[in-house]
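REQUEST FORM: STRUCTURE PREDICTION
Request ID: SP-0412
Submitted by: Lab K.M.
Chain count: 1
Length (residues): 464
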Amino acid sequence: MKLWGGRFEKDTDALVEDFHSSVSFDRRLYEQDIAGSIAHAAMLGRAGIITRAEAEQIIAGLETVRADIESGRAELAKSAEDIHMNVEKLLTERIGPVGKKLHTGRSRNDQVALDLRLFLRAETDKTMDLLAALTRTLLTLAEEHAETWAPGYTHLQKAQPITLGHHFMAYAAMFLRDLSRLSDARRRLNYSPLGSGALAGTTFPLRREETARDLGFAGLTLNSLDGVSDRDFALEFLSAAALVMMHLSRLAEEIILWASGEFDFISLDDAYATGSSIMPQKKNPDVAELVRGKTGRVYGDLFALLTVMKGLPLAYNKDLQEDKECVFDAVDTVQKCLLVTAPLLKTMTVRKDRLAAEAKKGFMNATDLADYLAKKQIPFREAHAIVGRLVLLCGQRGCALEDLPLTELQAAAAGIEADVYDAISVETCVRARRVPGGPAPEAVREAIRAARAELETMNKREDA
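STATUS: Completed
RESULT:
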């Protein structure tokens, strides 16, 4: 008989039972469910709602249930619907009728809200650890390549010379923002809904503050209706995860481009590439391609839960059962992608000579020549036009700006001197951009120091 079946005269139809059951996926919440139940039972005993002896018996029974689930000895029944009812059923089978007292002052509605918060709190921490590790990898690469000259692009067209370290720092900045978002989301989810009951609390004198403290929450949810039906905390995680994946996908796309024969900026380690079943010469960037492809899954998880929530009246509705698979999939996907991207980057070989050679192509020093003229008191718009005409001339001749004779440059604009060639060399173009956040090696190194300090501050804040 169902634990809720007192008012029913017929058994649940087999089709409905299968459709209704969630234990096939929410079983992974067993640790959180048992932790919440232990805290609830301990509070019931302290409050005198059940005896202390009964509370101790329930807690001991829950610990055996946890051990049996972990070892695979416990069989979870589809007929018990979900992990919450399965745990209670297993508990009652082990300790008898006293197990039925566990649910005093509690509903599955506040129970499942509690479990999901506990799960996401732990998984947010794990995700942040993986994200911090990837960010540190990027900072190490940025430091290593602070003076590796490289082409910078806009519109996927060569634009201005930068360093590869500066390029890596752009992704470090993205992931630092992602860490900040996850940290903020964690802070908002860390409130206990336990005690909200089905929707209207309970007449039992529950000590909500005690269970919140025992479970490591910062405080209590303020409203019982909201406590059981809020999934903002899950949506915030999914939103932050979607942004993480978007940033990973952008990085993956560049790795794919850089590893191509057309760019040839990097070579992927054999352990992080695959071959072709028919073409012996192929070395495919499948890891990066999968990261790029899996981004759509996490976007879908976010949009699926947003859609579930958009028309729900207060308070709990069975629609909310759909929250877990979205959350579980996003957690698993983003963590796997973070886990594999760090070593993908660590093990790749950077072709510095190739990058440096490409940094000299495409008239990427044209802006610097215009700046040189502007410093000679030629209005920038005029300087821009002068350099544009010189680029056109070089294009017709098949040469670079620095290949033009000094006499031709001087004929194009007054004030040009022999130092122009040094001013428009790749190294000068990069080193002169010392503005904070710029590509000059000292600016990159300062950005690395600031990023490491921010990571350290985040770690201290989380520890506190």
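NOTES: The longest strand covers residues 157-163.
Reviewed by: T.R.
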